[in-house]
Amino acid sequence: MMAAPGTATVWWFDIREVTLGAADLADLDPRETARAAAFMFPADRHRYQVAHVMLRRVLAGRLGAEPGRLAFGRLRCPVCGGPSGKPVLAGPPGGGGRSGMSFSLAHSGDAVAIAVARGPVGIDVERDATGCVCSLASAMHPDDTALAEVLPEPERHAALIRWWVRAEAVLKRAGNGIAHGMDASPVLSAGCSVAALSAPKGYQAALALPGLTGSLAAGSEVGNDGGLCGGRVPDAGGKDQGNALCDPSRSPVR
User: Fold this and answer.
1) What is the pTM of this model?
2) What is 7-224's CATH number, 3.90.470.20, 3.30.450.20, 3.40.50.970, 3.30.1330.30?
3) Which residues of 1-40 are buried (b: 16+ CB within 10 A; e: fewer)?
């Protein structure tokens, strides 16, 4: 089942509550398996594995496909034309496309967030920073800098993290990499088609979707009219199993 046009469905996962066995990891393709093996620390490897296994399950549940048979590619970067643009489904086995399906994946700390939509969508999540983040101001659009620099601490600190997750979400929706800069347009002001997304305690998150403004509840299907309904957690076969609303940091996944 696909989300209605102009909406996105969001799932949250807590990597501490997800145990992956050999059968789960077998769904990853050789590139994903090699990438996971390259991580030095087990926690980083587990985070990556959970994120990509769950992405496959979410998409497979939407498409009625087997998670391990999904193939991924990338669009061209809209800025430089290089091969590092937005990740996409390459098509079902045997050829063909996945027209209309868009997704975005983000992970930080113990949190993984996945958004699926019929149109361009971007999601980002970041664990709250404990140290100084003032250096981020140099990467901001001048309009965002003007809004943040007049704030006292700790409001300024929070605004800089909020800017980061919103800017990342916008770049993911467009398919631009951060190497091309994060200051192309302001993201802290109204009317920028990006909104704060309710996240687990200790995290900030944002969702970028055309026509979107305001603030959104976690585990929600998000419409341009602001209507919300529950997202669901897929099991190993890509089917819904339990409601992922309420506390997003404790989605019932094993």
Assistant:
1) 0.78
2) 3.90.470.20
3) eebeebbbbbbbbbbeebebeeebeebbeeebeeebeeee
